[in-house]
Amino acid sequence: MRRYSLRDDQWERIKDLLPGREGYVGGTAVNNRLFVEAVLYRYRAGIPWRDLPARFGDWKNVHRRLRRWCESGVIERIFR
């Protein structure tokens, strides 16, 4: 499913905008790249959250994390 994955150059442009990055004080988030790819997969495939493939983890957690990132402005920073 590479068409739903981020290229390395895309990841390099956004990784420092995300919470939980290496060296970040406070809570750290594991697998930011996998999470971003899960969100992209869901929207590009046009599927309901509950149909998100298991390799991305529990769909409820992915959805909850996306809501938090939207509310805190992280998603807006990524897509500027």
UniProtKB/TrEMBL annotation:
<dbReference type="Pfam" id="PF13340">
    <property type="entry name" value="DUF4096"/>
</dbReference>
<feature type="domain" description="Insertion element IS402-like">
    <location>
        <begin position="6"/>
        <end position="79"/>
    </location>
</feature>
<dbReference type="InterPro" id="IPR052909">
    <property type="entry name" value="Transposase_6_like"/>
</dbReference>
<protein>
    <submittedName>
        <fullName>IS5/IS1182 family transposase</fullName>
    </submittedName>
</protein>
<dbReference type="InterPro" id="IPR025161">
    <property type="entry name" value="IS402-like_dom"/>
</dbReference>
